[in-house]
């Protein structure tokens, strides 16, 4: 079924009886050409592009819970291409281009809103680091504008310019940055994959990976054994557990990241804003809630919930930066499990086991990467060669030290990225 | 979350700084080889369940602690000084 | 309508308030909701999506409809629940989300278009043409969405945060909570009793029943009085426990002065962090609606809320009331209405075989529709014999009660389904240390609440090692509950589940039909449960409807996740103290006052403040001051406070061995009385920090770190000492705060220093990199002959209490020698002239190799980072490596953050050769100089490259040069 204004109209006039399931609920087949483990954003987009770009139709996504139930549905929805290290730049640039055509491609409104992202800086040193970043963005073909203090004040007059502990020196403005409706991204890809024949199998937990003579032959699941010559492991915070089924120990530590939303408010914040001196970034959803987040709780966790110290820090940073939001009330907080890598950048790579592919290490930047991650992962799984835009995301970079992409510069301590 | 510091008693985690897996205490020999060092610096068991990890009582007594904690329930089962725990980590 | 009665309002204290500009009267003890109802105001709000007229539905914090804005200007406070807003004299409340007025709301047109606005409609449309989303559709949606509005002004009210600790936290002061607190307090436990209401007592204040031999509310007041008199009890009324966290930590929001017209210094709200060894959840239960056609009109209210308004506030919600329910509570409401003299137009019971002894028109059936555009006028009752319409201006509904188990589920636990009460109940142990009691535990009679409260307290006391006494449990109501589940009444039209977000039974069914069958999918697709009430009024009903639609049972369907906070918490409360300067501690050097007095702009350096420059009369730009101050150091003598650098005192027989392990180079070989530059790596082989370390004695070293990394290095050193090398006999202590330290730099530095020292020094006794104890006017001090400027220079350290005096003295004497104080700008130029690095260069991605210091990595010993630094990728010649840069093009300027390209290459990523890290104008050399990283850097000295700064519009060519621009032989520092 194709969505259109006419379809909405005719359905509305006839009692909305004709809407069909957005995806099927198939029984797993005995064998697939390719299996994607993980029905999150990255897994669904991988399956979608396997079908769309590479013509693979006999594909299954295996999800232990419900599709889109992981980080794709529990983030702060920011979409941006403001990385500065080679390897990252071209990948996120590619991803943003895919975002810009996503609604048309999926025939599903993911509400991608390019409202502009402003990273604030609060010292000369930070300004110079952001200048390096902004110039890298322009070198890549993306957009960036260096705002001085007055330039920031012009578009964000409600920030604390008069009494702040860390005065605002300026900001790096990324006009094409913005937000999207996170759940819709998962559902749009799911629907698109399903329409192209991909089996989305929910409530199907992988319990083992079958390997014979160094080749993957299939998986064991709570719904039986399924054979496949190619298996993609796309399970974010659960990467270590699933990889362990193949005998692999990954450079991943799983951490909890909290996020927050307030009650609905009339429009007050029109951009995505990121504070430079505390862990705080914020935007306002189309429904009116202020959506904001901070840093990890900093301890390893699979709990999808956090504790008060970071929650309070985030609120404190909010009050320091924009005391006009003080009377907004936090409605809900939640946590996601972040697959933190040693350099803060991801892995999209083949493994030492033939037919087993790895997609992990998104830290807490995975949402914006969903389109390109699936695009490049599908390319890797279909062709056995890395996609040119993801060529830097190799697993062996840690052992060789070659091509590390440490945007934060905090080194090989997983929770610091 | 609260950690029972052997020196200071039960304290809120806001006083502590986290480092990571307690395997960091078992530093390999300099010539142990690339694979061993890669494992030490980058790779982690990352269990969903009990784990031993390093916390620093930065806003307290400055002790480095080995905390046995469940990464799913966050329950803390044991706390000991890193200097005493060294060698216990298999 | 106000009625007679002896509720908890004080008729001797009348209050005036306004709603949407109209003045009304109320009484002390009223909430805004009870006062509005007393004034026959039924229409109080508009729904989120369809802008349907809405009235007060509940009497608690779960209220979905009656959200108002209070206050003007910066004090404007949106989305307050009228049901918990205590009335005060002069309260001005306004309705929300309507235009132009509550009565005539233009967006009510949305309601007519409802067939096109079903669940998830926006995912299917607004996509054509593409550019219209951001330009038209989204702005339109944003303007229509949202509830109240922020003022846009900075918060001007006071908020606070606090900590509390107790043996036992009792959450809720109804019969269970009061009994629990009393039992524990009498046994000597430290008890905190928190309740979100202003008056403790819970449902006892809303009902007419007796406890013991007295009215329930009098019994409650008596218990509260006893507790208040006990030293081991803290009563926290107006306090909602908002979240359960690990380790017995609970968040709590106290509405301290929101009910006070002129609060003075009292905070509006206080956010508490309560640490409790044990906790009892006695938060009661919330009544749930029934979904039937048009069940959202003003005048339709929960049956228990009707009793609360009648009995506590002496307010009748209407003149002719229909009561509808599926449990015995509905009958209780009818009885209370009768007793209060209010006409009961009908009592409708959905249970099979239901009957009543009350003298009211009784129907065994269901409500299947309502009428009345802005307020209820009539209801339709479906019975076996057909549909009957009954005129009524209020409808009391009870679909049963849901235990308030939210906090018990905050750690991710899933509750159990209790078929007997058709509700979820907490599963024991979901939050360690927390036990549920009373209605929160599914015990719905007062007698059972009292018994469970006492029992839970006894169990907690046993855990705490306290001896529980024999609780004295008073006699109380122990009636049956007797519920037959009823989630939605079948039929045409729209039946609301989530009132606030306008989610109907049809929406849930549509979601199920479109494959959103998981309860989480349904929630996210329909937005059910995502409104400010967080599904308190709708979750169980909605998942029951979903279960039905998908052919599953309710427990199979499961719940969504319960997440903090239980009630919305203002950012100002949870972030209290951080506004303005309070966000982070401020660290001041001992020279701060003198620098400010000298007119120096103070800039943030981490938590520290440091002088940017010291303007002289007549100077109009920072560059003039900076150039002059650089000249002081190069030509005479300059003074700079360097106390912010980390100073770590290291002592013990193994101090040298310890330093050998943390630095790349050797320190055990350093002679006493000498200082050495050291480079420190992370274990992953990248540079962590640098600085000088002095050997003050055989077993005594003093390390300096950069200002930025002082804390990080201390943590790292302690880890190495305790975690990696506990075999070494060495101790560390930070002495950053204890010593004030000043650089005295320039050709006349020794002259200045000798003017102060009790025993003058000379070049032989105190050569470059020498250090030692000295005295200044009898004061013990330390002198280091080290230089961050490349000049003959010293750093003098004195105990911090002498810092202010010494700085003023040094500054005055330097001025007498033709020099003076210099700030960060000059310091930066001086260090770039010498090619000295800061964290602009050692930014976490650079290796010793990158900065040309591979020679400092000792081959003779192991050290932190050694092995990983030898990974092939970290030693490649092609890495971006440190170079100096001089502009050679027409544009004689360099900018930090610019990128480098080969001279003829376009400035695109594929051609990137490196970037500029630090720049400054060198008055010494008369041109800009810069440091940067360039692929194959040191191999390209002499090459001309292109520098492009797109952002600032600066482009030039540069000569690649040695990063040491000035005095490369270093003779000046040694002279």
Automatic annotation (TrEMBL), chain A:
A Pfam entry, by short name: DAO
Reactions this protein catalyses: sarcosine + O2 + H2O = formaldehyde + glycine + H2O2; sarcosine + (6S)-5,6,7,8-tetrahydrofolate + O2 = (6R)-5,10-methylene-5,6,7,8-tetrahydrofolate + glycine + H2O2
Cofactor(s) named in the record: FAD; FMN
Major place of residence: cytoplasm
Localization annotation: Cytoplasm
SUPFAM superfamilies with a match to the protein in the record: FAD-linked reductases, C-terminal domain, FAD/NAD(P)-binding domain
Alphabetical keyword list: Cytoplasm, FAD, Flavoprotein, FMN, Nucleotide-binding, Oxidoreductase
A molecular function (GO) term: sarcosine oxidase activity
Example GO biological process: tetrahydrofolate metabolic process
One cellular component (GO) term of this entry: cytoplasm
EC nos: 1.5.3.24
InterPro entries: FAD-dep_OxRdtase, FAD/NAD-bd_sf, Rhodanese-like_dom, SoxB
Residue ranges occupied by any Rhodanese domain in the UniProt entry: 35-78
NCBIfam families, A to Z: soxB (TIGR01373)
Family recorded in the similarity comment: Belongs to the SoxB family.
Xref: PANTHER family: FAD-DEPENDENT OXIDOREDUCTASE DOMAIN-CONTAINING PROTEIN 1, SARCOSINE DEHYDROGENASE-RELATED
Protein name as catalogued: Sarcosine oxidase subunit beta
From TrEMBL, chain B:
Transmembrane segments: none
Annotated protein name in UniProt: Sarcosine oxidase subunit delta
Pfam family, any one: SoxD
Gene Ontology BP term (one): tetrahydrofolate metabolic process
GO terms for MF: sarcosine oxidase activity
TrEMBL record, chain C:
Keywords, ordered alphabetically: Oxidoreductase
Similarity-based family: Belongs to the GcvT family.
Annotated ranges, domain Aminomethyltransferase C-terminal: 881-967
Keyword Oxidoreductase: yes
Cited Pfam families: FAD_oxidored, Fer2_4, GCV_T, GCV_T_C, SO_alpha_A3
The UniProt record lists the keyword Metal-binding: no
GO biological process assignments: tetrahydrofolate metabolic process
Record's signal peptide: none
Cited NCBIfam families: soxA
Name of this chain's protein: Sarcosine oxidase subunit alpha family protein
Limits of the GCVT N-terminal domain: 592-861
Any GO MF annotation of the entry: sarcosine oxidase activity
Annotated ranges, domain SoxA A3: 492-577
Organism this protein belongs to: Aquicoccus porphyridii
